[in-house]
Specification:
single chain; 230 residues; alpha+beta; 3 domains; five-stranded mixed sheet; elongated
Length: 230
């Protein structure tokens, strides 16, 4: 039996814009008779595309060539691949499927010759159990066949951040000092006005309460002075 191998690969790409490398990845996939089985995208806080994750399936015979061509896409940061030999697992699963089918057929034959109700129920229960095991083995067999016939390559494309423009750069020298000075002055005035604003309510209350008290005390002193003079 020919060796059965499960091959997987990953490729990571970084670029200022993702459209061009994405087109190149699509061309590589098409050239090797593959398909993009799954695609997920992410955006930044502005809603612009910032990342793409592509799950690519290519025929196993094309895996090595596809990885080579993907590694040539501009902006590739790194790539790696793994291969697992599952020949023994494929053979073992096939034998278990065959044995399970033979056993299920025998139990079904016994059910056709069953006499009593209890025997029928017992055989039907056994058939249900064996059928469930057979279905599970068939799913494993189908999965192995898919993984060995088609290789999986995960391609991640990430947009790099653009460097700050001259317009966005901070001023230097005299203008930087002037800018920092205005900023510090603004912070000082903001703190000063905040403190004044916090004191004003108390000053207003003190004026409302202290004014009448001061007038009463002044009147009492005036009366006391007149009495002393008389």
């Amino acid at each position: 039996m020919q060796r059965q191998v499960v091959s997987t690969g990953t490729v990571r790409v970084t670029a200022r814009q993702l459209e061009r490398p994405r087109d190149q990845v699509d061309r590589v996939v098409a050239a090797h008779h593959g398909v993009v089985a799954d695609e997920r995208s992410g955006t930044d806080r502005h809603g612009d595309l910032s990342q793409l994750r592509l799950v690519v399936r290519v025929p196993s015979a094309e895996f090595g060539a596809a990885m080579h061509d993907l590694a040539a896409v501009p902006g590739v940061r790194d790539s790696d691949r793994t291969s697992d030999d599952v020949t023994t697992q494929v053979i073992d699963t096939a034998q278990r499927v065959k044995a399970q089918r033979v056993g299920l057929t025998r139990v079904e034959d016994l059910l056709g010759r069953a006499g009593g109700l209890s025997e029928v129920l017992a055989l039907e229960k056994e058939i249900t159990r064996r059928q469930a095991e057979l279905d599970s083995l068939l799913q494993q067999q189908a999965y192995l066949a898919d993984q060995t016939s088609l290789s999986t390559i995960t391609v991640t494309l990430t947009r790099t951040s653009a460097p700050p423009t001259q317009h966005d750069a901070r001023p230097a020298g005299f203008w930087a000092g002037l800018s920092h000075g205005w900023h510090a002055l603004g912070l000082f005035l903001a703190g000063l006005f905040t403190g004044v604003g916090a004191v004003l309510p108390f000053a207003a209350v003190a004026a409302l309460v202290g004014g009448p008290v001061w007038l009463v005390l002044r009147r009492r002193r005036a009366l006391a002075s007149r009495s002393a003079a008389g």
